[in-house]
Amino acid sequence: MARGDSYMLMREETNPDVFVVQSKQARAPIASMERTRKLLIAFVIFMGILIIFLVVVLEHIIKSSNAETEQTTEPFSSNCTITLVESIPENVTFSAGSVQNPSIYDGWMNLLDIAEERIDIASFYWTLQGSDTKTKDYSTEEGETVFKKLQDVAKAGVKIRIVQTPPTDAFPQIDTNILSKEGLADVRSLNITRLVGSGILHTKMWLVDGKHFYVGSANQDWRALTQVQELGLITYNCSLMANDMSKIFDVYWDLAQDTKIPNPWPKKYQTTINADSPAQIKFNGSNAASVYLSSSPPKFCPPDRTDDLSAIIRVIDSATKFVFVSVMDYFPTTLYTRQRTYWPVIDDALRRAAFDRKVHVRLMASLWNHTRSDMKNYLRSLAALNYANDAYVQVRLYSVPPYTKEIPFTRVNHNKYMVTESVAYIGTSNWSADYFLYTGGIGYVINETENSSNVRAQLQAVFERNWYSNFTTPIYDKD
């Protein structure tokens, strides 16, 4: 051992700090283990956070993928039933062998009979009782029966919600006031003018138990059952489309209390069923049809809801053989704005179909004691296209014959529908600008595929029955 080494050893042995040094050296492995443990805990925590983060990201990706799939995959429903229903006014008869359909009265009563839990009704006004119009006539009975049945099913425990246009002097909404006061229905009034600057709720829709629904031209009015010609569709056992209809009703119901239209629209109002992604419905045992609901005004349409005007234009533009239209009013203008403006959107679509594609266009408007005189001018203008560039356009006026007594606002063809070689469209709106820009309404579009011709063929038969009846006259002497 070198001297220096011996000296260092002696110092270490005699140095009292040797015990301190030895103690620290003894604890060094323990400190190292503590640091390792802390690092391990930190690593575990980090990995846990990372795993949670990855799970959240993965879940988001899956949801996004599902949402994208929903947008690109057409929903399907089978075993639905669709029934075309009509109101034919008293004393109106067609020739022997003419098509006959179930009545709207029978359809409404059937919906009331099968209701188990809830009924939602979106409506313009209520005058189901003869007393509402100060009328004493046997033809009020069907409306009064419907009103009493509504009361009865409510008393039996069926929940009824009604959204309507606010009461006015012209439409005091006596019936719904009775239902509300008796605790038989929750009633809300939707002031569309407050929300979009103009317009009313013109919708006529029933929704029952989230499975069945009616949409058509008939108001909640006894006259709509016996004194006015009406047409609609009742869809049974079709939860897919009923759920989509409920989204439209929810818009009305919630906006009746809200001060403004939501932006953005909450998801509960949004749909994946529209003109670009229709539902595939197999109904009445036939082949599948492409089906969707449209709505107006556009400001009431959440993302992906097709607005009613776009639906109509799309149907016209898709026609290759014919377009047959039956509406009460036809105006390529506004009607109820302070200053009327020209609005040829639908008119242009019909002219394009006839002139450019040689599609046979027939339009049947209503003539009654409330028809505006200038409507004939617009109809004549459309009919003047007949034979121009081989276009084929025919226009007629439909008049319901008078009844045995004078009853206000009756004896009119109130239908609002269109049929082509492949599509049936049933709406709730008259054809003028106001109804599509500012007024609440619904359209029901059924595009029958695979050479099926169920509802579409029935609707065409109704149109042709009316067109060739004794109740129509050409807008010109000859057409």
From TrEMBL:
Q: Which residues cross the membrane?
A: 39-58
Output the InterPro entries linked to this UniProt entry.
Diverse_PLD-related, PLDc_3, PLipase_D/transphosphatidylase
Q: Which lineage do the record's taxonomy fields give for this organism?
A: Eukaryota, Metazoa, Cnidaria, Anthozoa, Hexacorallia
Q: What is the protein name given in its UniProt record?
A: PLD phosphodiesterase domain-containing protein
Domain PLD phosphodiesterase: residue ranges: 197-224, 409-435
Source superkingdom: Eukaryota
The yes or no answer to whether the keyword Transmembrane helix is present is yes
Record key words, sorted: Membrane, Transmembrane, Transmembrane helix
Q: Which SMART domains match?
A: PLDc
* Family the UniProt entry places it in: Belongs to the phospholipase D family.
Task: Specify one Pfam family.
Answer: PLDc_3
Q: Which organism is it from?
A: Pocillopora meandrina
Q: Name one GO molecular function term.
A: catalytic activity
